[in-house]
Amino acid sequence: MSPRLRWRKFVSGFMLTMTGVCAFVTVFVLFFILGYLVYHGGKSINWDFFTKLPTPVGETGGGMANAIVGSAKLLLLASLLGVPIGFLGAIYLAEFSGSKVAFVVRYAADLLNGVPSIVIGIFAYSLVVLPFKHFSTLAGGFALGLMMVPITLRSTEEFLLAVPRALREAAMALGASKWKTIATVIVPAAYRGILTAVLLAFARVAGETAPLLFTAFGNRFWSPGWNQPTASLPVMIFTYAVAPYEDWHRQAWAAGLVLLGLILVINIVARAILARGIAVPRA
Amino acid sequence: MAATTTVSSASPIPGSRSFLGRLREGDEIARLITFLFAASVVVVTVLLVLELWQGSALPRHKFGLQFFFTRVWDPIAEQFGALPFIYGTLMTATVSLVIAVPLGIGAAIFLAELAPARLSDALEFFIDLLAAVPSVIYGLLGVFIVVPLMRDYVQPALSNTLGFLPLFSGPAYGVGFLTAGIVLAIMVIPYIISVSREVLLSVPRDQREAALGLGSTRWESTWKVVVPFARPGIMGSIFLALARALGETMAVTMVIGNAPTISASLFSPGDSIASVIANQFTEATGDLYVQSLIELGLVLFLLTFMLNGLARLLIVLTAQRGGGTAHA
Fold it and tell me: Which residue(s) pair with B79 in the sheet?
């Protein structure tokens, strides 16, 4: 073997090992931080966390029951806004629209998808908070719902388009009207994909904090109705983590574990739904 | 296939079903309803841009372009300049890319070229899950792991060895540009790996085989043939990561230190566009103050808008290139 070849082989072996090291370091760091979160969160979590209100500053104990309910309300509102718009909009794009309108809607959706979440917060603030003159669950739900729209829309459309043309033609040949074809043939054929899309969009906004800072704001008590500021898990994590109290840090870890657990479970379920018997191949 | 009639096209077969017929069967109604929902997406997006533009009218008129070059941010004197925040945003994003790009691309090469398919897919599943971790959680980990680590070990070590550079001088607070950049790097690495791996896998097999057949080593075929082939897509993944790093709010806000400073030192506490909005928006009093923050939001929006567009274009270009050559 000539020295030149030996050198080339050495470089090859070395660089390939380095890529392995890169992969190892990355995966290690990521495993480490997740493990740390589970360890600390697990140590800090207790029954009070789920059932009690936050205590006044300076007192230890208490929990985040109001934030858990607040997050649930916000996510309910967000889904009520984001899922219908995303789903029906996708049906229009995939089944009814001409290519020009579709291009404009897709472009708008992609643009909306790339808007930094804090800017969505500003938008919801000036559109909902200012006219009502106070922070509210409504405004927070609006901001989160807005973020769900483009994710739901784009992936639902993709799954609808992947339904084989033969299915449509068969239904229409039997004399079904177009909307009947959509409702009874196309959507059922793509439902796994659509469900996955909705779940992933839900999981994505469940952890969003920035759009809630000046829409849902925060609250140390229960938030009755929909028109009051409300606490939410992500904002509580932020407030508690940067505060100087030891007991708040403990609760921030617990909240982090609960939030992360929820999001990862939804993600895994969504992927499992899609993987289990793929009725429709991904486009 | 080309000869098949397009059933999904808007125009019905002439004469077979009249407009009234379609109306009776509900098609026109379904069409109208779904159209309204699709159109609302466009309306909302236009409204968002309009709202940002009108909401920042005062500072745009009062400061003009000076807004971008003024380094004073003094709410009491009603002097608002965006320079410290633009600086902080660019600084943290740069630090994050310097760390994340080599690690991410290296890992992507390993996953696409070397790792057995099963290991590669398993790791990809894990990495996708990490991309779903909310930023406030990264912020939480940043505050309690990265900040103490930086303050007690990394920053003293850096200033002892590389302290002669202005980048690594000054007191070690723990919080600051460097810390924010590192937390951002951890956040964006999953994106770089995921997209880069995908485009590397889309490089046609014969490219690799041709290079190996000509006698190149495994690394030479990867680095001189496969990676250049996938370069636009990899660049796309980097722009995507950059757009994300620029717009990221919570993780940065929690570890950057929140002080409108411009300092050559990476150890110095700073502020980014997103973090200043997050911290001051609810406390801002007076129209000019609020609107200056909205103008910062507008700047951030435009920055990420351009980067996202560029990223998508590059990724699409690579995908076409891979497909085109494979069939040729």
Answer: B74
Q: What ipTM describes this predicted complex?
A: 0.89
What confidence tens digit (pLDDT) does each residue in A136-186 have? 999 999 999 999 999 999 999 999 999 998 998 899 899 888 888 999 999
Q: Contact B219/A26, CB-based, under 8 Å?
A: no
Q: Identify which of B106, B143, B217 has the shortest CB distance to residue A22.
A: B106
| Of A208, A119, A97, A112, residue with least CA distance to B41 | A112
DSSP 8-state secondary structure symbol assigned to residue B115: S
Determine how many CB atoms are found less than 10 A away from the CB of residue A44.
Answer: 18
3-state helix, strand, coil in chain A (%, to 5): 75, 0, 25
C-alpha span between B89 and B101 (Å, rounded):
18
Query: What is the CA B36 to chain-centroid distance, rounded?
Result: 31
Query: Which amino acid is present at A135?
Result: F
Nearest CA to CA, how far is B161 from chain A (Å)? 23
- Which residue do the tokens 């899309």 mark? A197
- b/e string for B280-311 if b means 16 or more Cβ within 10 A? bbeebeeebbbbbbbbbbbbbbebbbebbbbb
Q: What are phi and psi of B308, to 5 degrees?
A: -65, -40
User: Percent of chain B beyond pLDDT 70?
Assistant: 91
Chain A environment of B248 (Cβ under 8 Å): 116
Contact between B143 and B255 under an 8 Å Cβ cutoff? The reply is yes
Contact A241 B143 (CB under 8 A): yes
Contacts of B282 (CB under 8 A, 6+ apart): A213, A214, A217
Q: Do A241 and B51 touch (CB under 8 A)?
A: no
Task: Return the number of other C-beta atoms located less than 10 Å from residue B43's C-beta.
Answer: 11
Q: Is the pLDDT of residue B323 over 60?
A: no
pTM of the predicted structure, to 2 decimals:
0.89
* Contact indicator for A123, A215 with CB cutoff of 8 Å: no
Q: pLDDT tens-digit profile of B200-253?
A: 999 998 999 999 999 999 999 999 999 999 988 899 899 989 989 999 999 999
**Tell me: the pLDDT tens digits for B42-85?**
999 999 999 999 999 999 999 988 999 888 898 888 889 999 99
Beta bridge partners of B80: B73
Question: Three-class SS of residue B321?
Answer: helix
Calpha distance B103→A27 (Å, rounded): 11
Q: Which residues of B313-324 are buried (b: 16+ CB within 10 A; e: fewer)?
A: ebbeebbebbee
Mean pLDDT of all residues in B282-298:
91
Chain A residue numbers with beta carbons less than 8 Å from the beta carbon of B212 are none
Q: Which of B34, B220, B305 minimises the CB distance to A111?
A: B305
DSSP state of B80: E
Bridge partner residues of A54 (DSSP): A62
Residue B324 has pLDDT above 90, yes or no: no
Q: Give the burial class of B271: count Cβ atoms within 10 A of its Cβ; 0-12 exposed, 13-18 middle, 19 or more buried.
A: buried
CB pair distance less than 8 Å for A26 and B104? yes
